[in-house]
Amino acid sequence: MSNSKIKFPQIVSYDWKKLFFELIVVFLGVTAGFILNNWRMQKDVQNTEQKYLNGFHQDIVANITELSKSIKSDSLWLVHAKPKLLSIQNGTIKIDSANYIIKLMVSISKASLQTGTYEEIINSGNLNTISNFNIKKQIVDYHEAINGVGFIDDYFYRYFNNFVMPFIYSNFSILKGKLEDPLIIKTNQFANVVAGYYSMVQQRKSAYQDLLNKSFSLKAKLEALISD
Fold first, then answer.
1. Could you tell me the mean pLDDT of each successive run of 10 residues in the chain, 228 residues long?
2. pLDDT number for residue 107
3. Cα separation of 207 and 19, whole Å?
4. Torsion of CA 190, 75, 155, 167, to 10 degrees
5. Which of 52, 84, 140, 219 is the most exposed place for a label (fewest CB within 10 A)?
6. How many Cα atoms occupy the beta-carbon half-sphere of 24 within 13 Å?
7. Per-residue pLDDT at 129
């Protein structure tokens, strides 16, 4: 029988300290990469939020200017029209005054309000980018108020097109600048058209003023966030 020696595999000796150090290096590298990536994502979110906040601020500043101008215009219209309306009410309206108030009613305008930033953030689904819940809620409420003003403006335009302009086309000479039949000023139709228009201007002015107050409030809160 052969006396051959049995050979056992050699046990490899590992440098456990070196392996542990390499493991720590790998762990720190992965962790650092994760943290860096997370920081970049957070920074992108913050930059996007800041962009939207600045956009909202610019829109509101523009709206404040537009609303202030429209409120002033409607206020002046009401000041000029109120004495004429009272004279219609008590039956003392004169033809010259009637012609004057018709001329006041011939043109109509409305505030052109900025909503571009809100439409962008809603369409992109990034509303939750705004981290401050109260500001986010106020922004949503503010644009709902703009929609409310738009509803009043649209209703005013429908009234103008459906009642005011047909009356003017039928009874008022644009070229002569006067009512064709002086007796028309004694009719309910004339009184109702003027009173309805006056009421529309009052309602719109009130809505504009309410929106202007909301604009100033939101503007101040946005400026506090932007300056932080």
1. 54 61 67 59 69 93 97 96 95 95 90 94 88 92 96 95 94 92 94 96 97 96 82
2. 83
3. 73
4. 20
5. 140
6. 6
7. 87
Round to whole Å and give the CA distance between 217 and 221.
Answer: 7
Number of residues that this document lists for the chain? 228
Name, in order, each residue with C-beta under 8 angstroms of 208's C-beta and a sequence gap of 6 or more: 67, 70, 71, 74, 111, 149
What was the pLDDT predicted at 38?
A: 58
Task: Please choose, from the candidates 10, 51, 222, the residue with its C-alpha nearest in 3D space to the C-alpha of residue 136.
Answer: 222
Convert 34-60 to b/e letters by CB count within 10 Å (16 or more is b).
Answer: eeeeeeeeeeeeeeebeebbebbbebb
Q: Based on the structure, what is the number of domains in the chain?
A: 1
* Residue 99 included in any domain: yes
At which residue do the structure tokens 């097109």 appear?
161
78: in domain: yes
As a whole number of angstroms, the distance between CA 109 and CA 76 comes to 14
Q: What pLDDT shows up at residue 169?
A: 93
Q: How many CB atoms lie within 10 A of CB 93?
A: 21
Structural domain harbouring 143: 16-227
Residue carrying the six token digits 């962790």 = 31
Q: SS3 for 114?
A: coil
Cα 197 from chain centroid?
26
Task: Evaluate whether residue 7 is within a structural domain.
Answer: no
Q: Where are the alpha helices (DSSP H) in the chain?
A: 16-89, 95-106, 116-123, 133-159, 165-171, 188-227
